[in-house]
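Hey L., structure's done. Input below.
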Amino acid sequence: MQLRPVQLPKRAVDLYSGDRSFGRGRELQCRRCRWSGTMRRSKTAFCDFGERFDCDTVNRSEYSSVMGIPVAGIGIVGYGVLLALATAYRTRVETPLRLLVAAVAGLGFALYLTYVEAYVLETWCICV
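Output:
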């Protein structure tokens, strides 16, 4: 059986691009907050809305990096992979499956981090 390239509708690509831009912006803000010297020296009030909603607590936790790589950096790379698959490689036969696998992997990682915020840290970061 021969597979043929799937052409994504322009509206679907535009909608996906908008969501990806929003997500990438969130990741860049988180990276800026995490890597700024201010955050390491003292508690910032950028996203402190009380005991249950505090980005500093989340960003300083042991769950804020994986093997020394900040999760914000992982997110930026993930969005870059999705961008590359959705644009540069969209005419290849295997791209829809790879795009699906990458998106599901990103969703799984995001759900894991949400679980950590809810049940392990019991603190939410809602700003980034």
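The beta strands are 65-66, 69-70. The longest strand covers residues 65-66.

-- N.
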